[in-house]
Amino acid sequence: MRFPAFYVTGTDTGIGKTVASTALLHALRAHGHSAVGMKPVASGCERSADGWRNEDALALQAASVPRPDYADLNPYALPLPLAPELAAADAGVCVELGPIAEAFARLRAQADVVVVEGVGGWAAPLSATLDQADLARALALPVVLVVGLRLGCLNHARLSAAAIAADGLQCIGWIGNEIDPAMERIDDNMRMLQERLPMPCWGRLPYRPQPQAEQLAAELQPWAGMSPG
Fold this sequence. Notes:
By secondary structure, the chain is α/β, with parallel strands linked by helices.
């Protein structure tokens, strides 16, 4: 398999990284692969009987087969819904690469593919000393970019793709996610994105008020535009 793991980032916060990541997990499973998700750092968690839990991380866990331990899927579960650096400081936690790499290795041993979901947009830091590029580089993860389809998406997508390349990471695909049902000329915007982004499009997720990852999986083609490996 050419890419047994990859890092899902987005053009901004709230553009559907979790929707895309869970849909990818279902799509990979439909192609015959075991696939598990990972959310290394998640802020905005709720206390449960089992400890702090994050809604996005739980969605990744539910879409994973085999079902990973939550502690491996989300090593840093931070209570407050803030930027990770702030949420970690308020929790008295230091986000470090070591525990994430160890959890990733355990997940990698369980499944054919690991889908690692980042935080916010590509340049959002994980801590005062750790950027998402550092994590992706350390784990040798290529990147998949989720583009929130709304006014301004061309600018955000091109800047994000340029930043990923400047950080020395390979962006292997992008996914268009319809987050604004009132967006005008959405087909034209998709066409312009396809013409300008240097990596293949893995699919386009239609707008749904309550998206269901299993249904959206049919819209995606992981590893589109690549020769099998």
